[in-house]
Amino acid sequence: MLSSISPGQQVVKIVHQELVQLMGESHRQPALAPVPPTIIMLVGLQGAGKTTAAAKLARRFKEERRAPLLVAADPYRPAAAQQLQLLAQQLNVECYCGTPGQAPLKTCRQALSQAKETTAQVVIIDTAGRLHVDEGLMGELIELKQTVAPHYIWLVADAMTGQEAVRVAQGFEQAVGIDGVILTKMDGDARGGAALSIRAVIGKPILYVGLGEKLDALEPFHPDRIASRILGMGDVLSLVEKAETLYSEEQAAELEKKLRSSRFTLEDFSAQLKQLKKMGPLENLLELLPGMGNTKALKGLKPDDKQLAHTQAIIDSMTSEERHNHKIINGSRRRRIANGSGTSVQDINKLLKQFTQMQKMVKRLPKSAAGLGRMRGLPFTS
């Protein structure tokens, strides 16, 4: 025992270390083949999110300057190829679909020929799924594996299915062998139970986790961060990384300077709200904060994303002069703003009161506290 911490804290520390070790200790970045293209075959049940996961992966590889090629190898699910093609258009990446109803094996062969003739460095194959694991599905995947010879076979599993995801992982591992796992819908499984179970049972690394429907909602799997979430310790590092994608150090420093000198206006506040919205639902962000990752902590503190929209509407209904100097907003202006935003004068009064209190509060904060609150670029909200 260490004299500086309590027995309870020591136990939590030990459990955290064991959970991290159990789930793989650190994130594994998949190595690409020395001779492109690297072939990745996604497998899984229907509804697990393979098609969306394929597009999310393509986005990540594109950001890394590794040209991806998406391959629609699911001729059975209605509009599966069209869905993948639409996602590829949104990302401005290549997608090969073949002819309607064409056998997956033929589609993959043609796609690989195209990849070798172009500059594609990564080929992502979106295979067909079923509502359950069956011999027909596995037989088709085994044939694809033998012919295509993928460098990686990644299982896409739905974290919301809990222990069923473990049984699915076992089925695919025994039939075709998998090299890693992508867990989707992890935003609905804050505790990460499926991640813990899959890693412990099949011994394969979890590579990425899906945290929403948007194409940028795919993050590398970090065992230490998931362990912190499981123990209700939050995940501040992920929160900071989300913020850093939106804000630079220079922008954060300028924001703090404005706050301290009372130059922070409603115009600035509006910009902050828009940046915050890009980071995802408020409830998901709160769960990343220490002590907020459980229902008891969040009881009575459920954030309302609609309220953000109302606040944004109020500010948007103001003139530029009013946004830069809220003190000129008198009674008639408040009525006009309320009518323009579909709210009430009481809502306008509440917002202005909170904004004034926020300015006073921040100005009284010591410099060290404000720096911590900034969290290297976290958008400021009241």
Give a quick summary of the entry.
The chain is built from 18 helices and 8 strands.
Write the layout of secondary structure elements.
Blueprint: H1 7-22, E1 38-43, H2 50-63, E2 68-73, H3 80-91, E3 94-96, H4 104-117, E4 122-127, H5 135-148, E5 152-158, H6 163-175, E6 180-184, H7 193-202, E7 206-210, E8 218-220, H8 223-230, H9 236-244, H10 249-260, H11 266-278, H12 282-286, H13 295-298, H14 305-316, H15 320-324, H16 331-341, H17 345-364, H18 367-374
Parallel strand pairs: 1-4, 1-5, 2-3, 2-4, 5-6, 6-7
Antiparallel strand pairs: 7-8
Describe the overall structure.
The protein is an alpha/beta fold. It has two domains: 21-231, Rossmann fold (3-Layer(aba) Sandwich), CATH 3.40.50; 241-374, Signal recognition particle, SRP54 subunit, M-domain (434 Repressor (Amino-terminal Domain), Orthogonal Bundle), CATH 1.10.260.30. The protein contains 18 helices and eight strands. The chain has helices spanning 7-22, 50-63, 80-91, 104-117, 135-148, 163-175, 193-202, 223-230, 236-244, 249-260, 266-278, 282-286, 295-298, 305-316, 320-324, 331-341, 345-364, 367-374, and strands at residues 38-43, 68-73, 94-96, 122-127, 152-158, 180-184, 206-210, 218-220. The chain has an eight-stranded mixed β-sheet with strand order 3-2-4-1-5-6-7-8, sandwiched between helices. Strand 6, helix 7 (193-202) and strand 7 (206-210) form a beta-alpha-beta unit. Residues 293-301 and 368-382 have low confidence and may be disordered.
